[in-house]
Amino acid sequence: MKLFDTHAHLDEEAFHPDRAETVRRAIETGVETILTIGTTAESSQRAVDLAATFPNVYAVVGIQPNYVAQMKPNDWELIETLSTADKVVGIGETGLDRYWDYAPIELQRTYFSKHIQLSQKLNLPFVVHCREAEADVVQLLQQEAADAPLKGIMHSFCGNPETAAACLELGLYISFAGMLTFKKNEELRETARQIPLDRLLVETDAPYLAPVPQRGKRNEPAFVKHTCACLAELHQKSPEEMADITTTNAKTLFNIG
Ligand code: NI
What we know:
By secondary structure, this protein is α/β, with parallel strands linked by helices. The protein has helices at 19-29, 41-53, 75-82, 105-122, 134-145, 161-169, 186-193, 224-234, 239-254, and strands at residues 3-8, 31-37, 57-61, 88-97, 126-131, 152-154, 173-176, 200-202.
C-alpha cells in the first residue's frame, strides 16, 4: 500500500506527546508522504521545521482564513520567505470561512488572492479551505484563473456537485477527508463517485475529524487508509488501486519524486 496524506496539522499540540511515533505509525501503515499544513506564520515555520526533521514529511505554508485578522505586521513577509524554504511544496491553507466569525470576509478575500498569486508566481499548488462559502470561493477562483492557470486542491471537500464541477473545470484536484466515511454523508459520497480518478486525493486533516471506524478519536495520518478504502469502494477499485491512484496524483501535483 502506498498512501499519501495531503493534509495534516502535525505541528498541533495534540501531537506533542507522540509526534515521532505518529509519523512512524503512518509509515508502517503504508503512508509514504505526509504534508503538514501551516495555519499561521508560527505554524508555517513549525511545518518547515517538521519537514526538515522527518524525511517523509513535506510542508505547505500559509495563513488559514480564520487567522488573517490576527496577523502581525511581518507575518505575510514570513510566509513569502518560508515559501521558498527546503521541502515546501505548496501554499496554504487559504480560502474563505463564513462558519466561524473570526475574520471579516473582505480581509479573507484579500489574503485568499495573495496566496493564489504567490502560488502562481512560484508554480506551487495552493490548498483551499472552504466552509459555508462555496459560491464566493468559486467566484474568486474564477477571477484569479483569468490571470494565470490555477494549480491547487479543494481540501476536505464537502461541497455540492456544482461546486465540484466548477473546481474541476478550473483544473483543481478534490481531496476527501474523514467526513467521506460518516454514515449520514451519502450525498458527499455520491459527489465523490463522480470525480474523475485523475483528480482525486485523500487526506486526514489530522488531528481533526477521524474517519470511521476511528471516529471520535484523535485523527492521525495512519487513518488516511480508511478514507482511501471508502473512496475505493465508491469507484469500484481495490484499496491498493485507490492508494496508487491518489498517491500518483499527489506526487504529480506537488512534484514529489
Ligand atoms: Ni487544515
